[in-house]
Amino acid sequence: MLNATIDADLFRESIDVIAALVTECRLHTGPDGIRMRAVDTANVAMVSMELRKDAFEPFSATPGELGIDIAKMKNILSMMSKGDAITLSLPEGGQKLEISFRSYRYSITLLDANTIRKDPNPPTIELPGIAVIAGDTLNNAIKAAAVVSDKIALGIDPKAESFYMSAEGDIDHIKLQLVKDELKSLKAAEARSLFSLDYLKDMGKVMGKSAEVEVHLGIDHPVRFKFDFADGNGHAEYLLAPRIEAD
């Protein structure tokens, strides 16, 4: 059972978090809010999202699992205007999610959760370096790197107490280096890994709206991004596997 009302912009933020990586997911409901975790089809990236009940007014839900078509949800949300409130309603045992806003009422058939990949277990990876950076700074650096290459190196230089992002193409090169005073905070540890910009460009569009993003790094390890959204009532994490450089 689910009965909840939320500002359309806040709900759109949560769907955008998911849509950066997957087109469908298992959405888990409970008395504390909604949550999900999924990996992309290539098993390269993982997204986790939690939207707490405080983001809604009102909110009531029993433990359940909903199969959600994220692409369809994005299309519905594109119909909404700033200031709209969206109501989500699902009766106990129901298979159609009722979505209401203004004079519109959608009745969306849920996907069979058994046809959607099960939630992955979060990997236990030690990532000793942590840089906390403004979301728009991170996104702008990703966009700048995409001009010259299809991959980007993220790293931390403990000697210089800095976080850096660099990309190198056939003839061009770009690097952004931010010292500790230019970051929100820095836990300095030797770290550097290479990542695909195809994934980071979509993630960056979402993270760019956050005041700050935690970037957790190691040496040739995945990167973990952590950030809040929905006025602090939502929390998201992205985990992206590194690209291995050829010798």
Structural description of this entry:
The chain is α+β, with helices and mostly antiparallel strands. It folds into two domains: 2-111, DNA Polymerase III, subunit A, domain 2 (DNA Polymerase III, Chain A, domain 2, Roll), CATH 3.10.150.10; 129-240, Proliferating Cell Nuclear Antigen (Box), CATH 3.70.10.10. It is 17% helix and 44% strand. The protein contains four helices and 18 strands. The strands form three sheets. Strands 6-2-3-4-18-17-16-10-14 form a nine-stranded antiparallel β-sheet. Strands 5-1-7-8-9 form a five-stranded antiparallel β-sheet. Strand 12 and strand 13 (173-179) form a beta hairpin. Helix 1 packs antiparallel against helix 2 (70-77) and helix 3 (135-146) packs antiparallel against helix 4. The longest helix is centred in the N-terminal third of the chain and has 12 residues, at 8-19. The mean pLDDT is 95.
Strands of the largest sheet, in order across it? 6-2-3-4-18-17-16-10-14
Radius of gyration: 19 Å
Task: Tell me how many strands there are.
Answer: 18
N→C terminal distance = 55 Å
pLDDT averaged over residues: 95
Total tally of structural domains: 2
CATH class of the largest domain: Alpha Beta
Keywords:
247 residues; alpha+beta; DNA Polymerase III, Chain A, domain 2; Proliferating Cell Nuclear Antigen; 9-stranded antiparallel sheet; 5-stranded antiparallel sheet; 18 strands; 17% helix; elongated
List the helices and strands and how they pair.
Blueprint: E1 2-7, H1 8-19, E2 24-30, E3 33-39, E4 45-52, E5 59-61, E6 64-69, H2 70-77, E7 85-90, E8 96-101, E9 104-109, E10 129-133, H3 135-146, E11 151-157, E12 162-168, E13 173-179, E14 185-187, E15 191-196, H4 197-207, E16 213-217, E17 223-229, E18 234-240
Antiparallel strand pairs: 1-5, 1-7, 2-3, 2-6, 3-4, 4-18, 7-8, 8-9, 10-14, 10-16, 11-12, 11-15, 12-13, 16-17, 17-18
Helix pairs in contact: 1-2, 3-4
